[in-house]
Amino acid sequence: MTLSACPIDALLVGAVAPLPDGRSPSGIRKSATDRALWLSPTGLQGDAQADLRVHGGPEKAVHHYPREHYAHWASRSGRADLLANAGAFGENVSTRGWDESNVCIGDVVRLGEALVQVSQGRQPCWKLDVHFGEPGTAREMQASGRTGWYYRTLEPGWVRSGAEATLVERPHPQWPLSRLIALLFSRDARFAPEWALAAELPALAERWRRTFGKRVASSSVEDWEPRLRTPPPEA
After folding, report:
1. Positions in the chain whose pLDDT score sits under 70
2. Are 8 and 93 in contact (CB under 8 A)?
């Protein structure tokens, strides 16, 4: 499996703002910029997240989403306005050529002048449904495996649109993200040996390793509903 260098088509950041429901703050709305932005261990200059318990932080410094996936979403979504440009899914980096099948956990990537490492895939939440105004969007992202992935920052540096993303090192070539994502979103206990292997991957984010480890210990899969189900309006 090879991974050729690819240019960053769009670099995107955004502030926290209310979602269309008027009650849920989120940093999912990103805008493209032509300026060079500093990438620190916690994220890109000018970017923000609303709920730091589950978004942002060192293991989710940058979210990368393949532009090719937009064709899938266009076939099921009525939000042509959102899908007309990169950023519909709150991604910071948009490219063509890399996806979950050819990017591996632990890949070390030169992203402009910064050095980053693939840390985990995305676990979509109900705010995607509210953002699109289409119930089931988060579930479809999970079911299809089109989640994109996150980087941790190894060496801070400047990143800008048009700069190249280049693979520097691949410590786990047998672990493409598509394999890990399929394992995470499977309830089939026959995958328990695979869960055990994933729990020991040193490059995988601690939260994911802990999740796989708990499954092995309990022989059960955690409840996804609180993450996927939009909370009812407060009375």
Report:
1. 1, 52, 54-55, 234-235
2. yes
Which structure tokens are listed for 8?
Answer: 């960053």
Mutual angle of helices 206-218 and 177-184, in 10-degree steps: 50
Per-residue pLDDT of 22-65, as tens digits, reads 888 999 999 999 999 999 999 999 998 877 676 678 999 999 99
What SS3 class is residue 69? helix
DSSP 104-167: BTT-EEEETTEEEEEEEE----THHHHHHT-TTHHHHHHHHT---EEEEEEE-EEE-TTPEEEE
Confidence at residue 22, expressed as pLDDT on a 0 to 100 scale: 86
| Beta-strand relationship, 114-121 and 108-111 | antiparallel
Burial (Cβ within 10 Å: 0-12, 13-18, ≥19) of residue 159: buried
**Contact between residue 132 and residue 82 where contact means Cβ atoms under 8 Å apart:** yes
Q: What is the DSSP letter of 215?
A: H
Model pTM? 0.96
> How big is the CA angle at 45 (ends 44 and 48), to the nearest 5 degrees?
75
Cα 165 to Cα 86, 109, 181, 219: the distances in Å are 17, 6, 22, 39
